[in-house]
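Now for my pick.
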Amino acid sequence: MKFENTKKAGNAGENLACEFLKDQGLRIIERNFKASSGEIDIIAVDAEGTICFIEVKYREHIDNGLPMEAVNRAKQRRICRTSDHYRAENSLSEEFSYRFDVISIAGETTEWIKNAFEYIPRR
């Protein structure tokens, strides 16, 4: 798949990820949730009721490394802070089960990494 720019590639990758997740039985709640701390690509609920905050990384090829490698500690921290905003805005208690996943798309290969990282508490 060849895209003209990064934004189009990112959107196409997120569309592929949503279709993949739906095929796996997840229900998409929201896409591109934005807060002052950052953005979460996809928020979904799995069959057990776990709320999944999902980062999508797409690369046409892996010459510069695997897509999931771009989800470094700083990116993880931003996703965690953004998940705090989402939970507060939606009055979601700590009693819900939460998970941080990564969908890594490299060319035609999609990999779903469940529990890709743990929640990083505020300092």
About this structure: The longest strand covers residues 27-35. The chain has a mean pLDDT of 89. The chain is about 30% helix and 35% strand.
